[in-house]
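HUMAN:
Could you generate one sequence with tokenized structure?
ASSISTANT:
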Amino acid sequence: MALLQRRPRTDPAPSPAPPAGRAGTGGRGRVRRENLAAYGFLAPWFVGLVFITAGPLLASLYFSFTDYSLIGDHEVVGLANYERMLTDTRLHSALKVTFVYVFVSVPLQLALALALALVLDRGVRGLALYRSVYYLPSLLGGSVAVAILWRQVFGAEGLINQVLGFFGIQGEGWVSHPDYALGTLIVLNVWTFGAPMVIFLAGLRQIPAMYHEAAAVDGAGPVRRFWHITVPMLTPIIFFNLVLQIINAFQTFTQAFIVSGGTGGPSDSTLFYTLYLYQRGFGAFDMGYASAMAWLLLMIIGGFTAVNFLASKFWVFYGD
């Protein structure tokens, strides 16, 4: 009976606590090593920020207040470069050409991108193939090869005139005619609708189908559903594409440089702001004035972006 008696239960002794002086040392060391590793991976970005972005940016701001020719000493002239812009007629012409290009090409590009996104959203076969094909112009639109091809297509003996000649119509030298040269570049920018189209397509896929089904039950047709359901639900995507495409359009350079041969076209009809900036900085070596022009362009783009953000509160619907 004594063997069957239960022995009193004894809990195991607690493990000794680590010395107070060494508590958490390993954890802090691990965190420190992880931070150092993170800084090591971020170092190339910081180097690029300082020497490729921030450094040249601040240098251009300084040179915008100087008379600097790239190959000699510079002289501080204060606001003379900015005052000179007020009387520079070619600068005014470049601004006019650029504004026309932005205000015409961007809405047309976004409208075409949205239209094709609506077609592809209907579930056509080979969607991935169509999406890739339509996106391809956006990848190539700013390249030198496409700009050269565009010049050949709209040249006096180009493809467009060959097609018109087949119907007995005498074509023009579209890229060399002051009335049509800018239009060819607008068409080129509209043709690069792939990037906003893909973004529109992704936005359309996020609109719940139940809204369209409920509106259809109430008797709303496709047009009313588009204007009262699709467009309001898509306004954040429209706003995003609008801001990006306006910024990109203001910075257009390669197309104008190649198509016009770097001269700005006949009667400066394709003298984009960036092209004139290049001519002043690297053609006339007037780097001080070119730096001031660069900062004016930055202020113009920043101004348009700020206006878009301020106006977005009146038409962008976030579902609140």
Q: What stands out?
A: The first strand starts at residue 66 and ends at 67.
